[in-house]
Design brief:
Layout: E1 2-6, E2 12-16, E3 21-23, E4 29-31, E5 37-41, H1 44-57
Antiparallel strand pairs: 1-2, 1-5, 3-4
The structure holds zinc ion (ZN).
Length: 69
Amino acid sequence: MFVVFRCSCGRHLYAPKDAKTRTCPCGKRTILSKARVLAQAEDAFAAGEIVRTLQLDGHGMTGFKPAGP
Ligand SMILES: [Zn+2]
């Protein structure tokens, strides 16, 4: 499972759910336990798609849900 969240710089990022931190290209290290999770995805590909959509849209979440159990 992957989680999608937003860095304070505004970039959307994803990381494995069990990761502790994720470093943004801006250089800021986000602690995942303190990040607001925007969406979850089954795998990195799906997470990447969600991030791509968020970057294009940027207006809130409208029903991204994990597809599996
Ligand atoms: Zn950033």
